[in-house]
Specification:
Strands 1-2 form a two-stranded antiparallel sheet. It is built from eleven helices and two strands. It has one domain: Orthogonal Bundle (Penicillin binding protein transpeptidase fold).
Length: 284
């Protein structure tokens, strides 16, 4: 009995030491990501290449694919309002009101994870997706999600919502090697991001869950169905007025001006008693 007590007593210091080390590691981990990376630089500096772009380049190299990043920076003011609305509807409908995290979406995602027995999480906001693209990888594990949460909180404190949206629209993946709204608009529709129609914007927003798998060209039923849902929501919210859209998308046809009728020679315009011109012609 005495020996058992001695063994139990001797284990306590070891357990305490292990717990202390774990706490120190966790605290150190959190403190590190509370400082690094410096997100305040994003207020004025546009990222040239993101962590996710580098991740894709490594994938291409390992598979022997000669690919290059296609991207072109565009200011938010030069992006079609339809695309901005479509992205928010599709990816983060509470973007303007939350502080980086959609708690309802996170709760629903956790419940689904418990039901399926798999750790997929989900429910990521535009801010979280931006952090993942800028600094992290697509890895789905608790450590990566913790990093994402810390940096997202800092990002929301440091820069404006408009800037977050502008950054997101320029770095998000939109196909194999295609990053950003401007490159995607030219690739799929042959026009700038400013010229996108409501339906085109809905199609681009529809493929974002998996832009490598889903296509904009109409070969994916999922994309067509999701794009239609996004478009219909925009109509219901008054973002799109179908009749107006039809008018502005109708090709412009030049109509020549009518040539004014010439007064035959020898005729004059008769004036009435008030001194105004009359429409009748008086033959001399």
């Amino acid at each position: 009995m005495a020996k058992t007590r001695k063994k139990t007593t001797s284990r306590f210091p070891i357990i305490k030491t292990v717990l202390l080390l774990v706490i120190v590691v966790i605290v150190g981990f959190i403190c590190f990501y509370l400082i690094y990376p410096d997100v305040t630089i994003l207020k004025k500096v546009n990222p040239k290449k993101t962590s996710f772009m580098e991740y894709r380049e490594k994938q291409w190299k390992s598979k022997g694919r000669k690919m290059s990043i296609q991207k072109k920076w565009v200011f938010l003011k030069n992006v079609s309002p339809y695309l901005v609305k479509a992205i928010i509807i599709a990816e983060d409908d509470k973007f303007w009101s939350h502080r980086g995290f959609d708690m309802d979406a996170i709760q629903n995602a956790i419940e689904k994870n418990i039901e399926t027995g798999k750790f997929k999480l989900g429910g990521s906001t535009i801010s979280q997706q931006l952090v993942k693209n800028l600094y992290l990888t697509p890895a789905k594990n608790p450590v990566r999600k913790l990093k994402e949460a810390i940096i997202t909180w800092r990002l929301e404190q440091a820069i404006s919502k408009r800037r977050i949206l502008e950054l997101y629209l320029n770095v998000v993946e939109w196909g194999d090697g295609i990053f950003g709204a401007e490159a995607a608009s030219h690739r799929y529709f042959g026009k700038s991001a400013a010229q996108l129609s409501a339906e085109e914007a809905a199609k681009l927003a529809a493929i974002l869950p998996n832009p490598i798998r889903f296509k904009v060209d109409g070969t994916s039923r999922y994309t067509e169905r999701r794009a239609r849902i996004i478009y219909n929501i925009m109509v219901k919210r008054g973002v799109v007025i179908p009749d107006y859209e039809e008018v502005i998308q109708t090709p412009h046809v030049e109509v020549p001006e009518e040539t004014p009728e010439k007064i035959p020679e020898g005729n004059s315009v008769k004036k009435d008693s008030g001194g105004t011109s009359s429409n009748t012609l008086e033959q001399k």
